[in-house]
Write a structure and sequence with these properties.
Arc Repressor Mutant, subunit A; mainly alpha; 7 helices; two-stranded antiparallel ribbon; 6% strand
């Protein structure tokens, strides 16, 4: 089963919440309370997202974090990669050379192609689409 980490899941929820008001600075405390996610987790996510240049930090009394770019230009792949690193369906995709059967595996090329499609699909979905601010998601055909 393909599954996002809990941190990536929380990060996408957090980013979608921020995308709903892209010009408003959000504090870690406010986001934690609004999303019902523990404050240390939100603070960690905000730092990782800022390090990936998806958020900017604003100091001061009305400070917090802002989206670094328009919600239409931040993809789900951007968010997931900021938290977990590049998405990979199998160990041979994420960590080449670590699988004991990698050299004799007939599936590696297929998994690589499938992984490319999945990552492409995540890259094609923006925060604006997920948040309903842009054209809705359309069904994707994998051919």
């Amino acid at each position: 089963m393909l599954r996002l980490s809990k941190l990536s899941d929380y990060a996408t929820v957090l980013m979608c919440r921020m995308a709903a008001q892209p010009d408003a600075a959000c504090s870690a405390a406010k986001l934690a309370a609004t999303l019902d996610v523990p404050l240390p987790t939100v603070a960690k996510l905000l730092k990782l997202l800022a390090r990936a240049q998806l958020l900017t930090s604003v100091r001061g009394g009305k400070g917090g974090y802002l989206l670094a770019r328009s919600p239409a230009t931040i993809s789900l792949a951007d968010v997931i990669t900021a938290i977990d690193g590049p998405p990979g369906l199998t160990e041979c995709i994420t960590s080449p050379g670590t699988c004991s059967i990698e050299s004799s595996c007939d599936m590696r090329r297929s998994w690589s192609a499938i992984n490319h499609v999945v990552v492409g699909a995540l890259a094609d979905v923006s925060l604006a689409q997920v948040g309903g601010m842009q054209a809705p998601l359309r069904r994707m055909r994998i051919s």
